[in-house]
UniProtKB/TrEMBL annotation:
Name this polypeptide is given: Histidine--tRNA ligase
Gene3D superfamilies cross-referenced by the UniProt entry: Anticodon-binding domain (3.40.50.800), Bira Bifunctional Protein, Domain 2 (3.30.930.10)
Keywords from the named record: Aminoacyl-tRNA synthetase, ATP-binding, Cytoplasm, Ligase, Nucleotide-binding, Protein biosynthesis
Keyword Electron transport applies: no
Length: 425
């Protein structure tokens, strides 16, 4: 063991479990790709000011959780705590919203960094898949992004994901609601930090998880009672579209999110098998974000889903039990060369098999026949190809079926074809 450990709050994805993370990224992005979303990759770090303005000065993320440092050129740099701000920065920088049809539809996948209190399901380095649709304000688009997430979860076989739905109003109706909420909150028995939050960002107080705060929030005014007509109609349409597709959801008028930029539709995907960190994904509409980071008015809607937590949710549902098989089936063919010349020829054979689409490995490190055969067994391969000096001279190899133990001589020239046939590749 080395004396180094992964930093606190981080962990390593190791095979075969790491396959689950890949499968989650693939399944969550596939529905978006089918809906015309293009792949975007932005830097892992951005100017600190982008997040301060884009995520919000009063959020936990910006005040407590960012990995911020000064680079050698004296710039303040921050490792991204989320990917929407960077995505929108890239759209504005490259004028994607002027270049073609709206909405601009993008999906991403990558690492995020938050200095959080580490616990199961909450890490300092974690991974998200997300979608953003920019440049259209249309309830069908809100419903579309929600469907994409639900289809992704369904493709993974998850049945325990619940959709919580809310609206946060818009710049017309939110100020009056904010004021009403503030008035209510000022009358409560709250600690100093929370009282400060009441003044800065009262909606976020609704998100407080502490029981002593929760208990006092029971009669808090609800945003749904303060919506303007346009927001009401918009929200009804989103709900109708989802219901029309048979989607079950729970209206949650207290659902606010940890980031400042949301307007109108907000939603969260939660899973009962995860304990305290139950959110497997979340998102919503953020019509003000572009202007907050110095761009033109550009409405947007999107979500980010936690890859790590989605894997935990699958494990909680018993959906990831085939790791053993997957590990065992790593390759189909395992080469056992006996001697220098055989190794050279085996190297060519294995290369040829792989190019022909046959997963293949071979014994390395000059192990004797016993060690090499053990390697063949451990690899989970169905066939071993054994090549000794005498085989080489005869232009053949011994093909051993590792399940039955049956062994036959096969001409080297026909080996790839024979194996493809036997493996139905
Ligand atoms: P957010 O960007 O905070 O809306 O988070 C979106 C999703 O990312 C959440 O629903 C989680 O699944 C995941 N997530 C957020 N923070 C963490 C974290 N610290 N560790 C693991 N997953 C996270």
């Amino acid at each position: 063991m080395s004396s180094f450990q992964a930093p606190k709050g981080t962990f390593d994805w190791l095979p075969p479990r790491s396959e689950r993370a890949l499968a989650v990224r693939e399944a969550l992005s596939a529905p978006a790709r089918r809906a015309g979303y293009g792949y975007i990759e932005t830097p892992t770090f951005e100017d600190t000011a982008l997040f301060a303005r884009g995520v919000g000065e009063s959020t936990d993320i910006v005040t407590k959780e960012m990995y911020t440092f000064e680079d050698k050129g004296g710039r303040s740099i921050t490792l991204r705590p989320e990917m929407t701000a960077g995505t929108l920065r890239a759209v504005l920088q490259h004028g994607l919203h002027n270049a073609g049809q709206l909405p601009v539809k993008l999906w991403y996948s990558g690492s995020n960094f938050r200095y959080e209190r580490a616990q199961k399901g909450r890490y300092r380095h974690f991974s998200q898949v997300g979608v953003e649709a920019l440049g259209a304000e249309d309830p069908a688009l809100d419903a579309e992004v929600i469907m994409l997430a639900l289809d992704g979860y369904a493709a993974l076989g998850l049945t325990g994901v619940e959709l919580l739905l809310n609206t946060l109003g818009c710049k017309e109706c939110r100020p009056a609601y904010r004021a009403a909420l503030q008035e209510f909150l000022r009358g409560l028995d709250l600690d100093e930090a929370t009282r400060a939050r009441v003044e800065l960002n009262p909606l976020r107080v609704l998100d407080d998880k502490r029981p002593e705060v929760r208990a006092q929030l029971e009669n808090a005014p609800l945003v749904t009672d303060h919506l303007c007509e346009a927001c009401k109609a918009y929200h009804e349409e989103v709900r109708a579209l989802l219901s029309g597709e048979g989607v079950a959801y729970t209206d949650d008028p207290r659902l606010v999110r940890g980031l400042d930029y949301y307007t109108r539709t907000t939603f969260e995907f939660v899973h009962g098998g995860l304990g305290a960190q139950s959110a497997v994904g979340g998102g919503g509409r953020y019509d003000g974000l572009s202007e907050m980071i110095g761009g033109p008015p550009l409405p947007g809607v999107g979500w980010a889903i936690g890859v790590d937590r989605t894997v935990l949710a699958m494990e909680a549902e018993g959906l990831a039990e085939d790791d053993g098989e997957r590990a065992a089936g790593r390759v189909s063919v395992y080469g056992v060369p006996l001697g220098e010349d055989a190794r050279r020829v085996m190297f060519g054979l294995v290369t040829g098999l792989r190019r022909a689409g046959v997963p293949a490995d071979m014994a390395f490190g000059g192990r004797g026949v016993k060690g090499a055969m053990k390697g063949a067994d451990r690899s989970g391969a169905r066939f071993a190809v054994i090549l000794g000096e005498r085989d080489l001279a005869a232009g053949e190899a011994q093909l051993k079926d590792l399940a039955s133990g049956e062994q036959t001589a096969v001409p080297l020239a026909g080996l790839v074809t024979t194996l493809k046939e036997k493996l139905s590749i």
